[in-house]
Structure to design on (284 residues):
């Protein structure tokens, strides 16, 4: 089976790629940790739900769930949070990690001082080192194979830092291709520092779009929606949580929209010839 599983982890991201019995994970959703003890960061985590799903769906004949790699798109807890828990489980194996170094240089001060970007990044790195997982830090433009999928990692960030924006602007974008069908998984890509424009120029039209930043502020400009023109758009949020303007832009280009927190997660099957079939309700 060739599939893109976008799990129901509330307003956070965990995506599992599957092809010919091989697996990879992009982000690991929010966690229950609150290393700085801020009430504003006391979020509901999904570590156990992800662990249960992985061990139910990704085990091999040796009883272990083995992933060719993990990718952390950017240093926010709703994307990196669950990795340390998964890495601590002896039945879950990651063979490689793609994780850019975190730097506060280009991030506005409020986020640096009142969020836990550095802490969640360092927790992830420490967990990777404890399991002796090799970390690849520079991989913009790198292409890898996962079964029948060809994956390309793209870095949308602008390192000139003319203006300071949030860590979302540093999200890694993954292009997944098979038999002419293309899916774009954009993390929290947004248009604040021109990231969407740079990705538009590199990618063009896709069949499936994992919508940026949970369909909220700063994501999915009209130009980006038109350039992508996806048949299917998946929002890691509730329908009510996504911004009305984002929904309208996607509808305007003819996308059928799925909200993972309302429909229990989404599996998009990529059949022979690249045909897409959507299944919902893959987890509670």
């Amino acid at each position: 089976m060739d599939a893109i599983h976008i799990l129901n982890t509330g307003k956070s991201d965990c995506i599992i790629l599957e092809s010919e019995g091989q697996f990879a994970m992009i982000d690991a959703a929010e966690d229950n940790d609150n290393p700085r003890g801020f009430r504003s960061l006391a979020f509901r985590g999904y570590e156990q739900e992800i662990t249960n799903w992985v061990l139910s769906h990704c085990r091999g004949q040796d009883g272990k769930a083995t992933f060719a790699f993990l990718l952390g798109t950017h240093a926010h807890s709703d994307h990196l949070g669950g990795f340390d828990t998964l890495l601590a489980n002896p039945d879950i194996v990651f063979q490689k990690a793609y994780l850019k170094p975190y730097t506060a240089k280009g991030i506005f001060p409020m986020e640096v001082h009142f969020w836990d970007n550095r802490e969640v990044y360092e927790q992830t790195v420490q967990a990777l080192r404890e399991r002796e997982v090799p970390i690849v830090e520079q991989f913009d433009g790198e292409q890898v194979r996962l079964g029948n999928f060809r994956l390309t990692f793209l870095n949308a960030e602008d390192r000139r830092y003319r203006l300071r924006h949030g860590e979302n602007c540093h999200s890694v974008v993954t292009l997944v291709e098979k038999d002419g069908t293309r899916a774009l998984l954009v993390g929290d890509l947004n248009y604040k520092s021109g990231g969407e424009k740079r990705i538009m120029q590199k990618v063009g039209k896709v069949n499936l779009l994992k919508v940026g930043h949970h369909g909220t502020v700063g994501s999915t400009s009209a130009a980006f929606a038109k350039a992508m023109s996806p048949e299917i758009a998946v929002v890691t949020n509730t329908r009510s949580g996504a911004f009305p303007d984002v929904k309208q832009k996607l509808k305007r280009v003819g996308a059928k929209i799925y909200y993972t927190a309302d429909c229990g997660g989404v599996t998009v099957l990529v059949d022979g010839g690249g045909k897409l079939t959507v299944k919902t309700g893959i987890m509670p």
